[in-house]
Amino acid sequence: MARAGVEGDMSVPGWTPQTRELIGIGRVVQISLEAGVWDVLDGICRRERMSIHALTRRIDARRPAVGLDEALALFALAYWRPASGPCTASGSGRLDAALAALAPPPSSRGAAIVQRFKDRLAQDCTPLRLRRVRDIACRTMDLRDFAVAAREAMGGPGPWRPGEDLAAGQALYELILMRPEDWLRPAEGPRPNPGG
């Protein structure tokens, strides 16, 4: 048996870092986590019947000021933590509880409504869709008009009803602005030269 500081492989099975390419909110990211954490996240995805990319976007929408890799690991821990305690939530109730554990609770009723929309919309915020929505946001200042145009650009009725346009518009706007460095660049091609 090998001991620390003595020859031999001291790596713990299942905890060797692995890198995967995931689709976050509006961007593709490289995430490095231990194999055991990936196994836990894959199990959560099977249990919740969602792709790892959809789960990543939901976590990305909720994560505090930490890296996405750390947020994924914190989420995996928060998801299964209730299993050892008094919480009896299962399925999406467990998912919602783990997502809520990633960030402080909303400060107002309006903020809570917007957060629920961010949770709902994050799953569909692929890079292409968010680029289309970002371009619309650059052209309009009214949140309702923005939401209406975004719903059409996303291809159909969207995951919100027309009466929910203000909250949906605010949620989309916040998702776009989460990482301004990703969105301040033009979608395609160089910036136009205003001087001619």
Keywords:
mainly alpha; 9 helices; 196 residues; 7% strand
How would you portray this structure in words?
This protein has 196 residues and is mainly alpha-helical. It is built from nine helices and two strands. The protein is 51% helix and 7% strand. The protein has a two-stranded antiparallel ribbon with strand order 1-2. The termini are far apart.
Helix content: 40-55%
Backbone structural class: mainly alpha
Strand percentage lies at 5-15%
Q: Report mean pLDDT, rounded to a whole number.
A: 77
The helix/strand series, from N terminus to C terminus, equals EEHHHHHHHHH
Number of helices: 9
Describe how the helices and strands are arranged.
Layout: E1 17-23, E2 28-34, H1 35-48, H2 52-62, H3 68-80, H4 92-100, H5 109-122, H6 127-137, H7 143-153, H8 165-177, H9 180-183
Antiparallel strand pairs: 1-2
Explain briefly what this protein structure is:
The chain has 196 residues and is mainly alpha-helical.
